[in-house]
Design brief:
The complex is a heterodimer of chains A (227) and B (339). Chain A is of the alpha/beta class and 227 residues long. Helix content of chain A is 30%, strand content 22%. In chain A, the strands form three sheets. Chain A has a four-stranded parallel β-sheet with strand order 3-2-4-5, sandwiched between helices. Chain A has a three-stranded antiparallel β-sheet with strand order 1-6-7. A two-stranded antiparallel ribbon of chain A has the order 8-9.
Chain lengths: 227, 339
């Protein structure tokens, strides 16, 4: 899932600025699961904003609403009227959600209430960790299901650097060394020989480096059926 | 291969190694400014004491004069450079164009490195590159030399950059079992020489070399063991506890501590500036002595073709180390004759 974290109330207040009517828009999918921008968080942020601006002598009219998924037009249509009636929409969706609102409602001012962090999973209650960097050309089949792009700080493809110590990365003792994990797993599976193959430079064109990405599935497009 | 007379690059380092001499390289750290005279001064300390000098590339992710810029000064002054290049700061385009330029400036040796993560250095908010890794860099450079192709596969005409290309290995970094294989992988990619991380623990290094010999890698590349003088017990403990892949046996820490024994037990305020100077001198002398002993033992190790001395901003130590180890003067191997 997409993992995000709420911005500070201070930053949120700056982003909202002098708008009088604010709609806090939560999202019911990834950011709900990671407790950053679901209906519960939308209600809390909205109350905080209402109270703090009232105390500061600049009371704002703040409402909140949560849609199933901010990243799909049909769900956004459900809140079309509400977003039109305010000065600013504070989206508690991920970066995709914020942009979906901007794109779907061209005359609506939308600001982000979250920092979108990564694609990952909860490793324990209250802890989320990155797992995928969306490089667009999955190599997990070569590395025992552990991604060196996302989990090695240097995205190395041919093994660990010289900074791996006691299972952690040189950047921080809290960060596991991705290559130690790969090594241990391949060893336990009896597949270490995979690591002796020299991996060629990666084609980063499928990653963000190739420019904004898009997938077109002609078999699914409605347009082609109509023609 | 025209005009190289059987040599890959014809560099002094390559000639020394190929002719069976025990090679000496030394590290020269470029300054954090644009003063070429600092390089010239350090050249004065190293010239004649080593077969080539390694120029670090933004070591520990701190901005310094470029290894190629400093390398050009070494070429002018007649000390052969080994330029280091890390994967952190350049993508494959920048690497290749810089290597064409470096070759045109007369640079012939290259050490391909991953590079410390930028969070260590003075620009922790920078974006890193890591477009290719060090193994891939070795392959790219040797393909430019031997196949006259850029990394993309496109052939090019005219002078190819003929580098004597090497890589690094940290024998004691983790996972330790994988290190000899990682070295083998870099050699398979085309590394003609290997410079290792600092070795203080000979027993651990012998174990590593045993595996390297078992794999036969020492016959396919020249391994230069990394050595360096300890400066003080504090520095030794710091390196042991904080630098991944550096093992310092207690015995050496004890020796360093013993060297400062005459001044032990006194608080900072009780020590006069003269005391401190004398203590530093005693520590340094012991550090150099230990380094010399290590070199002598490494020289007896099968598969070790030389040493790489890392003074770490103490280039003055290199000469007494090389002399003390009986490696001075350095051999003169005549220029390869044009075929």
């Amino acid at each position: 899932m997409i993992v995000a974290e709420q911005k500070s109330l201070e930053e949120i207040k700056k982003l909202v600025g002098n708008a009088k009517k604010v709609l806090v828009a939560g999202c019911g999918t990834c950011v709900t699961v990671c407790f950053a921008g679901g209906s519960r968080e939308a209600a809390i942020v909205s109350a905080e904003l209402r109270m703090s601006t009232k105390l500061a002598g600049d009371p704002k009219e703040v409402a909140d609403v949560t849609v199933q998924r901010q990243c799909e037009w049909e769900y956004l249509d459900e809140i079309a009227e509400q977003v039109q009636g305010v000065d600013v929409v504070l989206s508690l969706g991920c970066g995709v959600g914020v942009q979906a609102i901007a794109e779907h409602f061209p005359n609506v001012w939308v600001v982000p209430g979250l920092n979108t962090k990564f694609m990952g999973l909860p490793t324990e209650q209250g802890v989320w960790a990155e797992r995928c960097a969306a490089c667009g050309d999955c190599i997990l089949g070569l590395t025992g299901g552990i991604c060196p792009i996302a989990r090695c700080s240097k995205s190395l493809l041919n093994g660990p650097c010289g900074g791996s110590l006691d299972g952690h990365c040189e950047i921080n003792a809290e960060v596991p060394c991705g290559w130690q994990l790969i090594y241990d797993r391949l060893k336990s599976m009896g597949k270490l020989e995979v690591l002796m193959e020299i991996q060629a430079p990666k084609n980063w064109r499928t990653s963000r480096d190739g420019g904004p990405r898009k997938i077109v599935r002609e078999d699914l497009r409605l347009v082609s059926e109509e023609k | 291969m025209a005009g190289t007379n059987g040599y890959l690059s014809g560099s002094n380092l390559e000639r020394v190694l190929k002719n069976g001499h025990f090679a000496v390289t030394a590290e020269l750290g470029p300054p954090q400014n644009a003063d070429g005279n600092i390089i010239r001064k350090k050249i004065g300390l190293l010239k004649g004491c080593c077969d080539a000098a390694n120029l670090t590339d933004n070591q520990t992710a701190i901005v310094r004069m470029s290894s190629i810029g400093a390398g050009a000064i070494l070429v002018q002054e007649g000390l052969e450079p080994v330029i280091q290049m890390v994967c952190r700061d350049r993508n494959r385009l920048a690497m290749q164009s810089d290597l064409l330029g470096a070759y045109a400036l007369g640079i012939r040796n290259l050490l391909c490195l991953t590079g410390d993560h930028q969070t260590f250095g003075n620009h922790p908010t920078a974006k890193n590159v890591f477009d290719i890794d060090s193994t891939q860099m070795v392959q790219m450079v040797t393909d430019m030399r031997d196949k006259r192709v850029f990394q993309c596969g496109e052939e090019f005409k005219g002078q190819e950059p003929r580098f004597f290309a090497g890589a690094a290995e940290s024998p004691f970094a983790h996972p330790v079992d994988f290190r000899p294989y990682r070295l083998a992988k870099k050699v398979k990619a085309g590394a003609s020489f290997i410079q290792t991380q600092l070795v203080f623990d000979l027993e651990a290094f012998q174990k590593f070399m045993e595996k390297v010999r078992e794999l036969g890698v020492h016959k396919q590349t020249y391994i230069l063991a990394g050595v360096g003088p300890l400066k003080s017990p504090t520095m030794a403990k710091y390196m042991r506890d904080n630098v991944p892949g550096i093992l310092i046996p207690d015995e050496l820490i004890k020796r360093m501590t013993a060297a400062g024994a005459p001044w032990a037990g006194k608080s900072k305020d009780e020590l006069t500036p003269e005391d401190k100077k004398a203590r530093t001198k005693a520590w340094q002398a012991e550090g150099i002595k230990i380094c010399i002993e290590l070199i002598q033992q490494l020289r007896e190790t099968e598969g070790v073709s030389g040493v790489h001395i890392m003074g770490i901003e103490w280039e003055e130590a290199v000469k007494p180390i090389v002399e003390g180890a009986g490696l001075y003067p350095r051999p003169v191997v005549t220029e390869p004759q044009a075929a």
